[in-house]
Every structure is written in C-alpha cells, then in structure tokens.
Design goal:
Layout lengths: L10 H11 L6 E2 L9 H5 L2 H14 L10 E7 L6 H17 L3 E5 L5 H10 L7 E3 L8 H9 L3 E4 L10 H13 L6 E3 L19 H12 L4 H17 L7
Parallel strand pairs: 1-2, 2-3, 3-4, 4-5, 5-6
Helix pairs in contact: 3-4, 4-5
C-alpha cells in the first residue's frame, strides 16, 4: 500500500483493514514526486532524509509501532528526476540498502523509468529490489524490455484506469513483455488512489484486476502457472528482496 509521507498515510487504518479482512497489508515510507514534497524534503540533504526513512523503518510510523515493509511510492514526473526528486530517490536507495527493503517508484505517465533505475542502481541498490511504476501508461515495449533485462520489475499497476489507457493496451504490453521472456519481472496492480476509483463511488474497485483483467489474460492464453507468477511469486520475490525464486 504505497501511500507515503505527506500523502494521507494512515497506518492504523491499514492495520484495521488487515485485521478485519485477513489480507496482509504492507505499509510504505518515502516521498512522492516534487509537487507533493513536504517541507522536510526541501530543508534536508540526502543523508538527513535517509536517516528519517531508516528511523521510520526500524522504529515504526508515527508512534504506532507499525513498520513499513517497502519504500515507495518515490517519484519523478519527467524524463529525468528534478534535483529534489533525485535527492529523495538517493535517500530511498540508501535507506533500502541500510534496511533490506525493496523500493517502488512513481514514473509519471510511465516516463523516466530508465533514469530512475540508473540513479537507484548508481547508489548501489540491486535492480531486483526496484519496481518501476506505471509502465502500463507508457506504450513502449522496448523500454519495458530494457528495464526487465537490467533486472528491475516492470509495474503494470494502473489496471482499470481507462481514462489513462485502455486495458486492451495494457494486455498487449504485458503479453509483449511475457513473450520477450520477462514474465518474472512483471507486477500487476490497480492504483486505487482516489475515492472515485472505489466500487462504492462508481469506480472499478480493488477487485477489477481479479474480476476482469485476469480473465482476459487467461483468454489470451495465460495458464495457471503464469497467473500464479504474476500475482503471487513475483510480488513475494520483490517484497522480500529475493533475487531468484526459492524452491
């Protein structure tokens, strides 16, 4: 659950949701892209921001005792991160290295993923602990293949958001990555980031991936093993920081 610092994160609500539903919910820490940065980002350097993240990961969020299990959604909104965004990404990479967590990014409309990955790996963070976000909004299979070939996860994570891109296009892009031999680098999600996306508000809801997109993926030829890879093994490997699947 990639709501981060300054974006309305409520980890006690996440804990209640987990208890009441039996669904494992993983909280996050970090800062979003520059227009949403909190004043603490401007006032601090990379080392100080890293300290904030590590302290939250080790000691818990806002006195709750609840610790984040992933860094994200750390973002940029162009072909290359701004200096402020680069500062946050560097701090995130260093915090990930210090704590063992993986890191998920926000790439605005899918742009800038290669630059993000280069910056993060330049800090020493292994690519297999990085997920580059919103790649289903970028109709560029070549970029997806390059991200995957470098070892990063390619997040098709706005499934159902038809105002941005049709699910037909998302399916085509996902299948292209699978057919290129990179099924083990794909992640799926729906990015339910506003009330209007909830079923109760007339939106597609959290269940859209399972109720609509996965059946379409099956109809396109996906078997049970591929579905299991995309929905269970890949996210498990990403969140645990494992480089390869364990038997």
């Amino acid at each position: 659950e990639l709501t981060c610092r300054g974006m309305g994160r409520d980890v006690r609500a996440l804990a209640r949701a987990a208890r009441e539903t039996g669904v494992a919910v993983v909280a996050a820490t970090g800062w979003y892209y520059e227009p949403f940065h909190t004043p603490e980002v401007d006032a601090r350097d990379v080392e100080q921001l890293t300290e904030i993240l590590v302290r939250e990961i080790e000691d818990g969020i806002d006195g709750s005792g609840i610790r984040p299990g992933v860094l994200g959604e750390l973002g940029s909104h162009g072909d290359v991160p701004t200096p402020a965004e680069a500062k946050v990404l560097r701090a995130g990479a260093r915090a990930a290295l210090a704590t063992g967590l993986s890191l998920a990014t926000h790439a605005q409309l899918g742009r800038g993923g290669l630059a993000q990955l280069g910056l993060l790996t330049g800090e020493g963070l292994p690519a297999h602990r990085v997920s580059i976000g919103h790649q289903d909004l970028l109709d560029d299979p070549g970029v997806h293949r390059e991200l995957a070939a470098r070892g990063a996860y390619v997040a098709f994570d706005t499934v159902g958001k038809s105002s941005y891109r049709s699910d037909d296009t998302r399916l085509r892009l996902l299948l292209a990555l699978v057919e290129a031999g990179h099924a083990d680098r794909a992640l799926l999600s729906c990015d339910i980031s506003r009330h209007g996306y909830l079923r109760s508000e007339g939106g597609q809801g959290y269940g859209h991936l399972f109720a609509d997109f996965l059946p379409r993926l099956r109809a396109a030829g996906a078997d049970d093993d591929l579905i299991d890879l995309l929905t269970r093994r890949n996210p498990l490997r990403f969140l645990t920081g494992a480089n390869v699947e364990e038997n």
